[in-house]
Design a protein that fits this description.
This protein is α/β, with parallel strands linked by helices. It is 24% helix and 27% strand. The chain contains 9 helices and 17 strands. Strands 3, 4, 5, 8, 9, 16 and 17 form a 7-stranded mixed β-sheet that branches. A 6-stranded parallel β-sheet has the order 12-11-10-13-14-15, with helices on both faces. A two-stranded antiparallel ribbon has the order 1-2.
Length: 327
């Protein structure tokens, strides 16, 4: 197999060749068709998330075909197209797992972080954390749904049922969940860096009711806001943008420090919450919604060997939608 490997934080990924991995009990091996590039991959590569595996194959939005199975795996999984997300394994026994919050498992494994991921031609995954996908769909179009879509969906559920939803940072996750919001009959208010006029036009093309700079006040008070950009300074701005009893959801795994702010920004029963990881139930509910909503992911394709360029373009904000690596 071929893979792009992170040997040390804050360095370029290195192309390597390895023997094809052998699936253990309860595991499958995929021939990877596509793997989207997520901002979390940037946090791992840039050393903002500690305790990752080294050397590491990043990537956790994997679409592939099952070509080998380990002991105890249902033989009918052979040949299926599946998707592998960020949450790659849970213990099943800790209090969080036992009470339906496996996203908070005390002993998890994360794809492309604490186990090798999808910036490769092949990968091994737990069969229980590999979701069956449409065999007739475009694997490139499916790949961003495995994290950007799932985390966006979990964030939207946390945001509640309000009609007016603000999205801070209009990247891969926001461009997917904006389409879901429009399908649900909600109004989307997109916030970008002030200079990103093309991203604002992109948001409007997907049905956003308004798009502007992240420090601008929306034309109406919002019911809720989701912050996808890893920028702590956006938290006070989002709290000012939501109405009384509105909710602000922080949808990323990493964010710069939240600055000091007056208590008045939070008062009147506004809420600030975070989202951590995902659950298999999130996938069970989100994929049917994405199909019903007719979600179309906007992607830029890179060959596997150009993984560093894809990361650089994401870091610099040169993408609309999602970058996807194709072996």
């Amino acid at each position: 197999m071929k893979a792009m490997v992170l040997e040390r934080s804050r360095t370029r990924l290195v192309p390597v060749e390895r023997p094809d991995p052998v699936p253990g009990p309860g595991e499958i091996r995929l021939r990877i068709e596509a793997c989207a590039v997520c901002r979390t991959d940037l946090h791992v590569v840039d050393g903002e998330l500690e305790h990752s595996k080294r050397p590491l194959v990043p990537g956790h939005e994997i679409v592939g075909i099952v070509e080998a199975i380990g002991l105890g795996v249902d033989a009918t999984r052979m040949g299926r197209r599946v998707g592998v997300p960020w949450l790659g394994h849970t213990c099943g026994t800790c209090p969080y797992c036992r009470f339906g919050a496996e996203n908070l498992c005390d002993a998890p494994l994360f794809t492309g972080y604490t186990r090798d991921g999808g910036f490769a031609t092949h990968a091994v995954a737990d069969t229980d954390f590999a979701f069956d996908l449409d065999p007739d769909a475009d694997p490139v179009a499916l790949a961003p749904l495995l994290c950007a879509g799932l985390i966006g969906w979990r964030s939207l559920k946390k945001a509640g049922d309000g009609k007016r939803i603000g999205l801070y940072g209009f990247g891969a996750a926001a461009h997917i969940i904006a389409q879901v919001c429009v399908w649900q009959g909600r109004e989307v208010y997109a916030f970008t860096r002030p200079e990103d006029l093309d991203v604002q036009h992109f948001a409007l093309s997907l049905g956003a009711a308004w798009a502007g700079g992240s420090e601008e006040a929306p034309p109406v008070p919002l019911d809720a806001a989701i912050i996808f950009a890893p920028v702590g300074e956006l938290v006070p701005a989002a709290l000012r943008a939501v109405r009384k009893a509105g909710r602000v959801v922080c949808g990323g795994i990493h964010m710069s420090d939240i600055p000091s702010m007056p208590y008045a920004a939070l008062w009147e029963e506004r809420e600030l919450v975070s989202v951590a990881n995902l659950t298999r139930q999130d996938a069970a509910t989100f994929f049917p919604v994405a199909r019903a909503a007719g979600v179309r992911t906007h992607t830029t394709i890179y060959p596997l060997a150009s993984a560093n360029e894809a990361l650089a373009d994401l870091r610099a904000g040169r993408l609309n939608g999602a970058a996807v690596l194709v072996p």
